[in-house]
């Protein structure tokens, strides 16, 4: 039987969350220490542990069928490779940063300047769009140090919390792109493995939907139910069950996790009691 070959970062920022999401979709992987390849026990899947930066080429060559990869790396090196699902972790930006004292106003201020980066294609595209000529210094790590050692006037690198920029006396002045971990597919995938990938994607979608939402249970007096139902934008309509206590009901619904605290306050104001909030493992539509 055919197996879907999926690349996952061997070690680094994406590794743990990639393995967690595979586990959360019910795939159990024999993870021998230092193995470069592992098979799933209960799903037709083989995992290849690779460098994030090498994965676009493996996808292009069809060595792997799919990958969990940083979108920024795909934009830099993966032309022609499609993203089929955004996975919601490892969110970051690729940004321009300059020394704190600089009076940078716009990209035009980098005309004739030196930019250090690990993302030359992304930077060149941005410079071309803005008709700016600059000299690139391509370095693979510790890019933020470049202005301090006199190697560059500006950098383009990943920014998440901003603490690396801060520690190096730099400030973010322009955002080239937003990134997160994504599921990408090789243009050379065969139809049998495409079917397996569809099944994996279906499972991922239900886990991602679950992560995005909370399950809420509460008790309320019947006369307040209409007000409460209006506050809860549930999946379809909330489930309402009578309680043993006369004139009261229990109400169950799903709330988007971002709306959660505001909705809870409103529910309390409208007479809800005994509110329970639970995580959702899967939400299958
Ligand atoms: N500080 C960060 N916060 C959030 N996401 C990040 C951060 N740094 C990197 N990422 C994301 O995680 C991906 C992997 O980053 P990481 O530093 O682990 O690997 P790398 O050194 O770029 O790659 P390789 O696996 O090729 O050695 C990046 O491409 C980016 O999408
Ligand atoms: O805005 P922050 O939260 O500080 O994150 C940004 C930093 O994180 C990444 O480096 P990482 O720690 O992955 O080290 P690396 O350069 O060795 O990959 C990235 O290259 C930045 O340097
Ligand atoms: Mg890194």
Automatic annotation (TrEMBL):
Sorted UniProt keywords: Amino-acid biosynthesis, ATP-binding, Cytoplasm, Glycosyltransferase, Histidine biosynthesis, Magnesium, Metal-binding, Nucleotide-binding, Transferase
Record carries keyword NADP: no
Domain ATP phosphoribosyltransferase catalytic: 51-205
Pathway participation: Amino-acid biosynthesis; L-histidine biosynthesis; L-histidine from 5-phospho-alpha-D-ribose 1-diphosphate: step 1/9
Main localisation: cytoplasm
Cellular location(s): Cytoplasm
Regulation of its activity: Feedback inhibited by histidine.
Pfam families: HisG, HisG_C
Transmembrane segments: none
Top-level division of the source organism's lineage: Bacteria
Catalysed reactions listed for this entry: 1-(5-phospho-beta-D-ribosyl)-ATP + diphosphate = 5-phospho-alpha-D-ribose 1-diphosphate + ATP
The protein's Enzyme Commission number: 2.4.2.17
Histidine biosynthesis HisG C-terminal domain location: 211-282
EC category name: transferase
Cofactor annotation: Mg(2+)
One GO molecular-function entry: ATP phosphoribosyltransferase activity
Stated family: Belongs to the ATP phosphoribosyltransferase family. Long subfamily.
Described purpose of this protein according to its UniProt entry: Catalyzes the condensation of ATP and 5-phosphoribose 1-diphosphate to form N'-(5'-phosphoribosyl)-ATP (PR-ATP). Has a crucial role in the pathway because the rate of histidine biosynthesis seems to be controlled primarily by regulation of HisG enzymatic activity.
Protein's recorded name: ATP phosphoribosyltransferase
Native organism taxonomy: Bacteria, Pseudomonadati, Bacteroidota, Flavobacteriia, Flavobacteriales
């Amino acid at each position: 039987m055919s197996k879907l070959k999926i690349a996952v970062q061997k070690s680094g920022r994406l590794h743990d969350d990639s393995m967690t999401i595979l586990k959360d979709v019910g795939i159990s992987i024999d993870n021998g220490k230092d193995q470069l390849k592992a098979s799933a026990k209960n799903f037709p899947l083989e995992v290849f542990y690779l460098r994030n930066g090498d994965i676009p080429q493996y996808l292009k060559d069809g060595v792997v069928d799919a990958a969990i990869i940083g979108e920024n790396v795909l934009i830099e090196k993966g032309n022609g490779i499609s993203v089929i699902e955004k996975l919601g972790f490892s969110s970051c930006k690729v940004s321009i940063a300059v020394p704190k004292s600089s009076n940078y106003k716009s990209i035009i201020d980098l005309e004739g300047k030196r930019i250090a980066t690990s993302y030359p294609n992304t930077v060149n595209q941005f410079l071309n769009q803005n008709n700016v000529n600059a000299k690139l210094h391509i370095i693979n790590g510790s890019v933020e140090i470049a202005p301090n050692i006199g190697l560059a006037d500006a950098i383009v690198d990943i920014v998440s919390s901003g603490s690396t920029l801060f520690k190096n006396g730099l400030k973010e002045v322009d955002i080239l792109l937003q990134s997160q971990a994504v599921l990408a597919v090789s243009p050379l995938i065969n139809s049998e493995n495409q079917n397996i990938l569809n099944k994996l994607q279906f499972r991922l979608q239900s886990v991602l939907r679950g992560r995005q939402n909370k399950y809420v249970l509460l008790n309320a007096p019947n006369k307040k139910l209409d007000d409460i139902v209006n506050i809860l934008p549930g999946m379809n309509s909330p489930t309402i069950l009578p309680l043993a206590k006369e004139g009261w009901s229990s109400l169950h619904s799903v709330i988007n996790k971002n709306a959660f605290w505001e909705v809870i306050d409103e529910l309390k104001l409208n007479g809800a009691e005994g509110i329970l909030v639970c995580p959702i493992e899967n939400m299958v539509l």
